[in-house]
Amino acid sequence: MPGGPMNTPRRTSQMLRFIVVGGSIAGVACAYALQEAGHEVLVLEQGDGKHKSHGGIRSPPNMTRLLNHWGLGPAISQVSIKANRFTFMDGKSGEELGPLVLHDKLMKALAADFLYIQHGALHAMFVEFAKNAGVEFRYNTEVISVDPWKGMVITRSGARLTADVIVGADGYKSVVRPVVVGPEGMKGVLDKRVSVNITVPTDLMRQHEDLVSLTVSPEWSLWLGNDCATHGLLTVDPESSKREYAIVMHVPMERKPAQESWARSQPLNEKFLKLDRFEPRVQKLVRLARTMTPTGYTVYEPFDNWVHESGRVVLVGEAAHPLMPNGSHNAAMSIEDAMTLSTLFSLPATKSHTALLLSAYEELRQPRCAATQTSELRKRDFVCLPLGPEQQARDDGLRDTSMRALLDWDEAEEEYLRETWEEYIDLFAFDAREAVEDWWTKWGPAILRPQMLDSRMESAMAKFESLRLEVDVLREAVA
């Protein structure tokens, strides 16, 4: 069952110093988890730490389960909304095409809920937990270069800081990524769509009778438009305890690309948003907002390397796997990264095993994130189909499964459950801690027996390129 206790020993000596570049959710989550594992962590953030995003984050079970494991569950419950279903609607008419119901039996089996959380609330929570754990934060500190062989970062002010491991958590336009991946780490193909964040206070929505239901419903509403889509969900502002409606619009890119940032808003532009392609209720809802935050996206092929050959620099979050903005698993993949990395560095290995543990992190995370990236883009394109045969077939399919979706889990047809839920369950049931435990079960005995780490292996540990040889030697020794 997901979420059970780890059955692995813990590290009790040879703690490491980590520098985390970037105070993103990925960076702060890594910092908190590594500090809790007993290591010394410093976070360097170029901003002042005061920016707060009101956008909505979806926390699927695979993410919620890890938050609960870290002890954030009670705090999260105060600022989150529990989802009960996803509702697909025709963008122009508002007709309900069909729901995807999060049945109680399914969610109990997954041992975690699907939640909506305000981005700023989750980030602030991790910062508070990290500081309480002893993580040091330095704001207004921009890292301009990294020396991977010395384990050193150089800041805009000229400061030179060293660590055993440097964690690149500096997002889409990562400074650390090219050091690890090379020049191709900054090359990609511009996406054909722009993702736009809009937030509306529910106080304003309640003044309009046809919007009142959206202020209380725990469903995730999706309007499927002509070559575009809008979706919205409720979040809670932790400062005021008031609810807000977090809207995302995916619209075609027809002019200069938007910035890859969530920090810059601009006046609402109805033409840019293709607002005339949506029903009157959506138009009214969006017009209640004064500003919007458009975000462009560059699609990258999955990077071959997340760890530098020195074995001292590693990428996490969007620096490692730049996902489509505003997907269901952006934060989830970052939280899984943090759990994987911190769990590996909780194992009773020694400092000499650092490169091996980083290699294991890369091995465990790359296939998972690549598959998720593909899934997220496919789902986005599914809800954004232009009018035509494919769109009609999609809508007919949603209508056909509508009645079956509402049936109790035990009464639903096996074929329907498999077709509808197989991919979701693969995503939701994954447990990053269990993945590490499985890896340790396979390789831990060899790592804990020093006689199996001969001189050839010890020299290989210094260079990431030689890790393949080390694994082969370990495999032979175990056999």
Explain this structure:
The chain is an alpha+beta fold and about 475 residues long. The two termini are about 30 Å apart. Helices cover about 35% and strands about 20% of the residues. The model is unreliable at about 1-5 and about 450-479 (pLDDT under 50). The radius of gyration is 23 Å and the shape is globular. It has helices at about 25-35, 60-70, 75-80, 105-110, 120-135, 175-180, 200-205, 280-285, 330-345, 355-385, 390-400, 400-405, 415-430, 430-445, 455-460, 465-479; strands at about 15-20, 40-45, 55-60, 80, 85-90, 95-100, 115-120, 135-140, 145, 150-155, 160, 165-170, 190, 195-200, 220-225, 230-235, 245-250, 265, 290-295, 300, 315. Helix 1 (about 25-35) packs parallel to helix 5. The strands form 5 sheets. Strands 6-5-15-16-17-14-19-18 form an 8-stranded mixed sheet. It contains 16 helices and 21 strands.
Q: What's the SSE blueprint?
A:
Blueprint: E1 17-21, H1 25-36, E2 40-44, E3 56-59, H2 61-69, H3 73-78, E4 80-82, E5 85-90, E6 96-101, H4 104-110, E7 115-118, H5 119-133, E8 136-138, E9 143-147, E10 152-155, E11 160-162, E12 165-168, H6 177-181, E13 189-190, E14 193-201, H7 202-205, E15 220-225, E16 228-236, E17 243-252, E18 266-267, H8 280-287, E19 291-295, E20 298-299, E21 313-315, H9 330-344, H10 354-383, H11 389-400, H12 402-406, H13 414-428, H14 432-447, H15 455-460, H16 467-478
Parallel strand pairs: 1-2, 1-12, 2-8, 5-15, 12-21
Antiparallel strand pairs: 3-7, 4-7, 5-6, 9-10, 10-11, 13-20, 14-17, 14-19, 15-16, 16-17, 18-19
Helix pairs in contact: 1-5, 1-9, 2-9, 9-10, 9-14, 14-16
